[in-house]
Design brief:
Layout (H helix, E strand, L loop, with lengths): L2 E5 L4 H12 L3 E6 L6 H4 L8 E5 L12 E4 L6 H4 L3 H22 L2 E7 L26 H21 L3 E6 L2 E2 L10 H11 L3 E4 L5 E3 L1 E2 H12 L9 E3 L4 E3 H12 L5 E4 L14 H7 L7 H16 L3
Parallel strand pairs: 1-2, 1-4, 2-3, 4-5, 5-6, 6-11, 7-10, 8-13
Antiparallel strand pairs: 9-12
The structure holds nicotinamide-adenine-dinucleotide.
């Protein structure tokens, strides 16, 4: 049994990760400031003697004894990370410094939840880990993109300078139950709009593509990445390479919810990438992992979650 810290553990991905780590018999410390996470996400874990919850902001130093750290704390959707952009950068950068400092003190292994946003609006498709990205350093998304890029820099400098055991995973679009219903992310947006019978808003002409990974596949990959040999640091892409246009997604959600919603088209927001697709060759080689859950199957579970949730929206 390992003592494992999950920062951002009350969020969408973090809550699923806490659940899986508990199932494997580990002792889990969930740290969260509840900015976008909720107690509802982890309510079913409270009472488990191996689960501990701490309200805490990782922009401050943390002193605990742990064997491993999954650093997930950071608002992940534009609406939330642009709400207080300075705090977003602080969470990524000061948060990384604090968690890396903790890992150094207690000799813990540490994994960073990085993002496909480090590639910006890429001119290489699909994106391999060797691609350095095309990021606007001064735009509205920069607090997130550059914050995450700087966090990666810090991870690799701690590895070079202090020989810390690090893992950097670059997460691509992930969806599933416990996504925030109002955060503007495309899958949750479409499902909530469809369930309410409201117009489904597609930005641009809907021909921009995204790849969507179901949360269970993603969590499996993150856990495998943590368990790779010490000489493997990443960065490693994790996500689902199967591409869908945004318009196809909207049509699929309408079909699976049986909604009467209509699709409407709005202007594209600034810096919105036209195409995003992971090259997961490294993940399939090193982690022996490829996503196994089809979009229709994942949407079914996510729609089920939002149907129950929508009574309280
Ligand atoms: N979901 C995706 O598609 C996706 C894609 C790429 C990267 N990621 C990364 O994965 C991680 C988790 O994302 P998510 O989708 O679960 O988002 P989320 O917003 O549901 O979870 C983030 C959690 O971090 C907490 N948090 C934010 N700032 C904090 C701080 N200063 N101190 C402590 N806790 C703080 C929030 O309250 C929340 O519970 C993030 O780091 C995100 O950048 C997610």
């Amino acid at each position: 049994m390992k003592k494992i810290l999950v920062t951002g553990g009350a969020g969408f991905l973090g809550s699923h990760l806490c659940e899986r780590l508990l199932e494997q018999g580990h002792d889990v410390l969930c740290v969260d400031n509840f900015f976008t996470g909720t107690k509802d996400n982890i309510a079913h874990l409270i009472g488990n003697r191996n689960f501990e919850l701490m309200r805490f902001d990782i922009t401050f130093p943390l002193y605990v004894e742990v064997d491993e750290i999954f650093n997930l704390a950071c608002p992940a959707s534009p609406i939330h990370y642009q709400f207080d952009p300075v705090q977003t950068t602080k969470t990524s950068v000061h948060g990384a410094i604090n968690m890396l400092g903790l890992a150094k003190r207690v000799k813990a292994k540490i994994l960073q939840a990085s993002t496909s946003e480090v590639y910006g609006d890429p001119d290489v498709h699909p994106q391999p880990e060797s691609y350095w990205g095309r990021v606007n350093p001064i735009g509205l998304r920069s607090c997130y993109d550059e914050g995450k890029r700087c966090a990666e820099t810090l991870f690799f400098d701690y590895w070079r300078q202090h020989r810390l055991r690090i893992k950097v995973v670059r997460i691509f679009n992930t969806y599933g139950p416990r996504m925030h219903p109002n955060d503007g992310r495309v899958v949750s947006n479409f499902i909530v709009q469809a369930l309410k019978g409201e117009d489904i808003t597609v930005y641009g002409d809907g021909s921009q593509t995204r790849s969507f990974c179901y949360v269970d596949d993603l969590v499996e990959a993150m856990m495998r990445a943590m368990n790779t040999p010490d000489d493997f640091t990443g960065p490693i892409n994790i996500g689902n390479p199967k591409e869908f246009t945004i318009l196809q997604l909207a049509q699929q959600v309408i079909a699976q919810t049986g909604s009467k919603s209509k699709i409407v088209f709005n202007p594209l927001p600034s810096d919105d990438p036209k195409q995003r697709k992971p090259d997961i060759t490294l993940a399939s080689d090193v982690l022996k992992w490829t996503p196994s859950i089809e979009l229709a199957q994942g949407l079914e579970k996510t729609i089920g979650y939002f149907r129950v949730k929508s009574n309280t929206l």
